[in-house]
Design goal:
The chain is of the alpha+beta class and about 180 residues long. Helices cover about 30% and strands about 35% of the residues. Strands 1-7-6-5-4-3-2 form a 7-stranded antiparallel sheet, with helices on one face. The longest helix has 23 residues. The radius of gyration is 16 Å and the shape is globular.
Length: about 180
Amino acid sequence: MSETERAVFKVHIRGRIEDVWQEITKTDSLQKAIFNARLHTNGLKPGGKMQMRSANGKYVIVVGDVLEFDPPHRFSHTFKFTTLPDPPCKVTYDLKEVSDSVEFTLTVDDMPKGTQTAKHMTTGGKTIVDTLKVVVETGKPPFGVRFGYAMQAVMGPFVMPFIFGKKCHSENWPL
């Protein structure tokens, strides 16, 4: 039996709960707080399938199944990087209104201990909550993140085939 671990990331965001919810569940534009990926789904409801695709839509980075969808308080889904052989973990976004802000908690459960998935989720979780806070409060990601997205747009066509490979092409991951 493999060991798993849990990571919890929490932040208080000055803004409306609806705006935070919109940012993490939108499907009509890129998610500025979640690595400029596009949420692709056949339905945000329990049992629905979801993917996080590259900004240009050519690559599927993450696949998962929607476990809970309770707007605007909880969104939970399984989470598997398409580039890694690791088993899926579980990601839960909890939103709670507190005085003049929203308490946003990102919880990652069932990360297989010592795997690349655990390493990426541990560092990526902090980046997501910190970026989400700035996006909701100012309307745009911090400068360093914007610079990274700009570099991704310029270099992506040359770099992404090496990072993701044919295995991650969108046509190989139907919903």
